[in-house]
Amino acid sequence: MKIYIVRHGQTVANSLKIHNSKDEELTILGIKQAEELGEKLLNIDFDIIIASPLKRAIHTANIINKRGIPIIYDERLQERKNGNLVGKSLELEDRNEYWNYESSVQYGTSEDIKTFFKRIFNFLDELKEKDYSSVLIVAHAGVSIAFSCYFEGIQDGKCANRGLKNCEIKEYDF
């Protein structure tokens, strides 16, 4: 099975480099990014699209879905819950530490990285059992980090530089 993961288009929080709010729409640039990606994806046959239920992922999925492929939403694909970091600069914490699987540092009330990865890994373990040949996942930067760690290994625990940019796509194989 081929798995393609896409990060949603740009949001205001992305442009301001702050922790995202729970549910935020795409910017004009984010819509343009999704439209361009949709054109690139026309040559790939997907059995299904599975997306995060957050507005930015739903909007991106609807824009890139030029062929009317069924879209389902899965709560497990939501971004890592940022808790009381929402609205604060991404530079307030050590990003390498925030995304270090081996770290015991807790930043505010954000979701523990091991709990977050367990949620994403559970989704992928379940997906592996399905009878699809090609699946498009529309989610978030943190989810793309967890996908990278699932398919490529956690290695030294440092995961910060593995996230996708807005409307970037990456392919994996089961």
Written overview of the protein:
The chain is an alpha/beta fold and 174 residues long. It has a single domain (2-173), classed as Phosphoglycerate mutase-like (Rossmann fold). Helices cover 34% and strands 14% of the residues. The chain is built from six helices and five strands, in the order E-H-H-E-H-E-H-H-E-H-E. Strands 3-2-4-1-5 form a five-stranded mixed beta sheet. The termini are close together.
List SSEs in N-to-C order: EHHEHEHHEHE
Instruction: Going across the biggest sheet, name each strand in turn.
Output: 3-2-4-1-5
**Beta strands, count:** 5
Q: Tell me, rounded to a whole number, the average pLDDT.
A: 95
CATH architecture label: 3-Layer(aba) Sandwich
- CATH class label: Alpha Beta
The coarse silhouette is globular
Beta-strand content estimate:
5-15%
Q: Structural class, from helix and strand content?
A: alpha/beta
Largest β sheet strand count, sense and barrel closure: 5 strands, mixed
**Fourth CATH level, the homologous superfamily:** Phosphoglycerate mutase-like
Distance between the termini: 5 Å
